[in-house]
Structures are given as structure tokens and as C-alpha cells.
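Weekly puzzle thread! Below is a chain. First person to post its structure in C-alpha cell form gets bragging rights.
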Amino acid sequence: MAFGGERRSCPGMGFGMGVVEVALANLLYHFDWEVPNGEELEMVKGLGLQRIGKARLILLATPHHI
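Winning reply:
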């Protein structure tokens, strides 16, 4: 566990998780994302509702102008 657990958990855990969430939201909002050369993503079934990629995910980010 990165933030520890139970009684001795990090008091900044909520803040740290929030900062990561906002940073990810900003990246998703300000860039258009696509796979290189229009390739298809190969996905396999995982546990429950998740899907797992067969290969490493490589994306091209293009600045999105508002």
C-alpha cells in the first residue's frame, strides 16, 4: 500500500488521490487521444467488467484547442 493502512494511514491520502484525479482529468480534457496509424486495440476479457489489453497501450496526444 502506497499510503499505509488502518490507523497509521497517511493523512494526505485523500489529497494525493484528488490531485492525481484532477491531473488525469486535465490531460483527458485538453488533448485528443488516438492510437498511432489507426491501429486496433486487442483486448481480452478480464475479471468482472474490466478488459485487459494484450499489448502495451501507446497513444498519440494532440493538443485540443477550445
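Puzzle host: Confirmed. Bonus trivia for everyone else. Residues 13-30 form the longest helix (18 residues).
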